[in-house]
Amino acid sequence: MDLGWGYDEGKFAEKRSITRWDLDEGTEDFPVAIIRTCGHIRCLTYSPCLKAGDSWIQTILAY
Questions:
Q1: Which pLDDT tens digit goes with each residue over 9-53?
Q2: Which helix (H) or strand (E) holds 3?
Q3: Would the pTM count as exceeding 0.70?
Q4: Neighbouring residues of 51: CB distance < 8 A, sequence distance ≥ 6
Q5: CB–CB of 61/42 below 8 Å?
Q6: Among 18, 49, 24, which residue's Cα sits nearest to residue 36?
Q7: What is the DSSP string of 30-60?
Q8: 9: closest CA among 42, 36, 40, 34?
């Protein structure tokens, strides 16, 4: 599992939030979660999260 924290879409060239499709492009083997600087927005990879199961998702949502 990889967990990233502290992104700010205002500093990206695209000026938009990260999507699960962005994260899915980077990995198919393991779950990845990224949390915005405010802590209110989270983005998770899709397929690896399904494989990891509910306990992993519940752990990430607890942050």
A1: 999 999 998 888 888 887 777 778 888 999 888 887 776 566 666
A2: strand 2-7
A3: no
A4: 31
A5: yes
A6: 18
A7: S-EEEEETTSS-EEE-SHHHHHH-HHHHHHH
A8: 36
